Amino acid sequence: MSNEINSNVPQSARVYDYWLGGKDNFPADRAMGDAIAEQLPTIRTQVRAQRAFLGRTVRFLAAEAGIHQFLDIGTGIPTTGNVHEVAQEADPAARVLYVDNDPIVLAHSRALIPGTHSGTVEFILADLRKPEAILANPAVAKTLDLTQPVGLVLIGIMHHLRDQDDPRRIVATLVDALAPGSYLVLSQTTPDFDPEAMAGLAAVSEQGGIPNVPRTLADTEPFFAGLELVEPGLVPLAAWRPDPGTDQDPYSVYAYGGVARKP
């Protein structure tokens, strides 16, 4: 895998950074972001809802479920409310290993993610499509104890896997490597709420070289096979334990999300 940054080709982490108001993106990323926004004008609201889901789920795992270590794949460029920030607020000794396939994410993560004095934060450049390589990376053994429960975070990444990548096998490979009592946190965009908008989004994204595969509820459920879903189950993203006082229409965010425990 090349560590070179190609600013002329849009990359998903940098497009997300643009939508979230960040500055770590290039003209090609902004052009792609604008083209997708033409298909789905609420895309910025949707990605913010995804970040909020990340915060709620990681907070649940660290503060309520007793999870002290996290494997976050598809990290994206650091912004506010990163996994380590949320987890270490509840548990300053929490350990987090970030994984992404964009070199610019690696550069910014190492500069901007110090972690707490007692906690640990590491980052590796790797691809979700090669889960065995992720698990074999020395940073995994250095950062995480796989004999103890881990929170596996796959948020905002599954729709970048095509069906021929065999995403069910990828998730199962990662989950199989984790100890009983581990948790899977996963989100998946869906065409169920607005098929036309999501079809347009997927087409524009694919034209720009970024895989984008929205999946129905029926096609998302198998990612949690063999696991025990935490209430309220696999639901529209904004409906997963919303913070008090929020009144966002769950169906205004075109994605499902769930948290499940490995028995």
Task: Give your account of this protein's structure.
The chain is α/β, with parallel strands linked by helices. It has a single domain, classed as Rossmann fold, CATH 3.40.50. It is built from ten helices and eight strands. Strands 1, 2, 3, 4, 5, 6, 7 and 8 form an eight-stranded mixed beta sheet that branches. Helix 8 (167-176) links the parallel strand 4 and strand 5. Helix 1 packs across helix 2, helix 2 packs antiparallel against helix 9 and helix 3 runs parallel beside helix 4. The radius of gyration is 17 Å and the shape is globular.
Question: Which descriptors would you attach to this protein?
Answer:
263 residues; alpha/beta; Rossmann fold; 8-stranded mixed beta sheet; 38% helix; globular
Mean pLDDT: 89
Strand content: 5-15%
Q: What's the CATH H-level superfamily name?
A: Vaccinia Virus protein VP39
CATH architecture: 3-Layer(aba) Sandwich
In brief, what are we looking at here?
The chain has 263 residues and is of the alpha/beta class.
